[in-house]
Specification:
Elements (H helix, E strand, L loop, with lengths): L2 E5 L6 E3 L2 H13 L15 H11 L4 H22 L5 E3 L3 H11 L2 E6 L4 H11 L8 E2 L10 H13 L8 E5 L2 H9 L3 E5 L6 H5 L5 E3 L5 H9 L1
Parallel strand pairs: 1-4, 1-6, 4-5, 6-7, 7-8
Antiparallel strand pairs: 2-3
Length: 227
């Protein structure tokens, strides 16, 4: 392996699924409230960060939040498993072809840099048929602060493939300005894709090295990641 590509999940490689509903049910079951979840901004945040923000807005004290979060994740994952068969996730256009082409180079390690807790990430990827390519990486369950995740993901990739990756050999791929900031914080290259909540023009205002409309043009997407 000579390069490492770390992909975000929601809005980057897949869409759909019951995560927001499952999240809401879990918070209400454990804390009696999901806070202002309907209008809250989830994009580019870790699951623990989102839960803490919502519960703090609802007036829950931090100590109580800390004590209840493990039960929230148990309840959330149970709801995800129950709901995914009737409300599956799906891969975004061009994603499977891109992952196949990157895998075929045999020079790029494929990994994750996601705010999802690890089991939630696995469930979403399995539902969308993307799990065979994306398993190594860092997750919201590793650290609440997304900017702490790149170093974790890189370390795990190095252990998995037995190689060292310098910052300029790593690219963070995501659909939000927070994904770009996360990569920039650790000196990696960044590719932003306008397949989530943020449009092409908004992503062009970030410090991303390359901004794509989507992954549908496989050659362009390959060139962006491999450059």
């Amino acid at each position: 392996m000579r390069q490492l590509a770390l992909f975000d999940i929601d809005g980057t490689v897949l869409s759909g699924g019951p995560a927001k509903k499952a999240f809401s049910v879990a918070l209400v079951d454990v804390f009696g409230t999901a806070g202002p979840i309907q209008e809250w901004e989830f994009s580019g945040k870790t699951d623990p960060q989102i839960a803490r923000e919502l519960l703090a807005e609802a007036g829950i004290e931090q100590g109580q939040i800390d004590g209840g979060l493990p039960e929230v994740w148990e309840r959330y994952l149970s709801e995800m498993k129950t709901r995914l068969p009737s409300c599956p996730t799906w891969p975004l256009p061009g994603v499977k072809e891109l992952l196949l082409q990157l895998e075929a180079t045999q020079t790029v390690g494929l990994g994750l840099l996601t705010g999802n807790v690890v089991e939630g990430a696995r469930l979403k990827l399995e539902s969308a048929g993307l799990a065979p390519w994306l398993s190594i990486g860092a997750f919201g369950s590793d650290h609440e602060d997304r900017n702490e995740l790149p170093s974790i993901a890189i370390r795990r990739a190095e252990e998995h493939w037995g190689v060292r990756f310098s910052s300029d050999e790593v690219v963070v791929v995501g659909d939000t300005p927070r994904d770009v900031d996360c990569g920039r914080t650790h000196g990696t290259r960044t590719v932003a894709v306008a397949t989530g909540r943020f449009g092409f023009d908004a992503l062009c205002e970030t410090d991303a090295d390359i901004v794509l409309e989507s992954f549908e043009e496989t050659d362009c997407a390959l060139a962006a990641i491999l450059s």
